[in-house]
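INFO worker-7 received task bundle
INFO bundle size: 2
INFO processing item 0
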Amino acid sequence: MNKTLAVIALSLACPFAVAQSTDSYVRIDTRPFATLPEDFRHPESLATDPASGEIYVGSFDSREPASARRNQIVRLSPSGKLLARADLGQTPITGLAHAGGAIYFLNFGASKLQRLPAKFATGQLPEDVASFGALTPPAPGDRLVANPDGSQDRIAYGSAGFPAINGLAFDTEGNAYVSDSFQGAIYRIANATACRPCKVDVLVRDPLLATTGALPFGANGIAIDESAALLYVNNAGDGRVLRMPLAGGKPEVLAEGVYGADGLLLHDGLLWAASNQVDNVVALDANGLVRARAGHFDGIGADGAPLGLLFPAATAVQGKRMIVANLALPLTPREGDEWEEKVTRWNLAQFDIPSIDTP
């Protein structure tokens, strides 16, 4: 099903309801949360401070020429009001995470993990934590695919050695985990909240972390379940959610069909994945079953911002609600075929987190 038909189908779905048993499926409506500053484009990453409720948003402004870009991280009040901003110039930002009293972020353009104080002020400069580089070999190896007729395909990946750092998550010990969308890797930085200097280790490389899909990004959002010693990662191009041992090991497929699987978080036993190509957020249980689906696209508002969800890229929990970043990033070179091209103002949406019994 193409994106337009998917949007129509989702718009006809039933309204919000609260699940009462482990067999229930929940459909959730979204509502507006905050409109971002006029010069803020393409919110790609989100994080919240669990103590204060403040919200952090990172931009993925990749316009050409690069001199036109103004990438930044904004700090918002719990109600979405602008408190401060850090200007980062031409380099787009991907993953964001709050840990150890600081906000950590992946500077995609500079191939660095950087940080700012949680209460950073406008104009404050970030601190470098770790750098990422080309791996040897640059591609993670071939993937073998079994076909229904008994034959087998072999996918050989290529890579120019650019570290496409994308997803970021921390465990309770302050270790950072980072995904690499192009080189098919997951990195681990031990004691990232305190190390001086910090060392980047490759936790795992696997062809399941690379993609040949229409979306050129493989390994994307990361979530950690320390109680089960598991790490979850989205493969955006494949539309899959994967899981693997937290200590390292071969990934396996948990769920299929999450088209444009982007940001990922674990909350109350459910994995919430932003499905950017069908404009919704889905909740998966431990079996990979979709238990809830939030949002759909409703057009462009009079202010030039999306109504509902449009290319949702990240989520963050704030109390009993979930906040969603509408990346609204055009992907195709042809003009006139994407609603994202019509967006002139970027925003965040929200929805109430339903109570869902999990197996």
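INFO item 0 finished
INFO processing item 1
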Amino acid sequence: MPEIPEIETVRMHIEHKTKGKIIEKVTVGRAKALNVPVDEFAGIVTGQQLVDVRRRAKQIIISLSNSHSLVVHFMLEGFVRLFYSGEEVTGNPTIIFTLNSGDQLAFFKLNLGYLHLVPTVNLEAMPELAKLGPEPLAADFTLGKFLGLLAKRKGMIKPLLMDQEFIAGLGNVYSNETLFCSRIMPDRKTSHLNEVERSKLYHCIRDILSQATKLGGVYEEKFASDDKLTGGFESYLQVAYRTGQPCYGCSHPIETKRVGGRNAFYCPVCQQ
């Protein structure tokens, strides 16, 4: 599932390539991805300008000129692709927006994911957004705030980092990477972390997410035919999906085990 760096990369692409353009046509291949009937969706969206593109956790929010917004959640397999005017749309898109530039913004594999139409003023009232924790890259996500949140928790640290009500936008990849960065084993009890480890974890979360976002995350799906950014962080991964390969720090093979129902990748030598 894409996390903050991947979703932020997609957000930046959509903003750069489509902001200010007008949706001239809507083609829906899977009605279940919507939260309103297809005719109602098309009637409200068609003719509207894309005026703003934001991100909240792992969701993208595209605001339209008629005080409505599109809330997109890719879940496990979803992605979006921009086909420039003259390019053939390939695959089986869930939804296509044909823009006044001739470009087509196509959303794919929204089987578990969705594209919901909501009044812009009601965004924070959406159940999917209302209970989300703080954004780890926000200016007000300070060390003090993080330590305060951490002080109330007792479970294992990796599942906690992936809890969207604790911190929004972290998932399996970057929870593994931040724990390696901070030299903490994924199954350590949160209550057992000392002050130095907690501070290190905070700085690793922000540093790694910032770097990964700058380099385009690890998403495999390119946004457009000229996209040279997406996926640029993959070669920087230290432990995630590197089972059996040597640790860059000590050369011991990276190991994997189930922690909180998900695969945890770690170095048993470097992490304690």
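INFO item 1 finished
INFO post-check item 1: The radius of gyration is 20 Å.
INFO post-check item 1: The chain is about 25% helix and 20% strand.
INFO worker-7 idle
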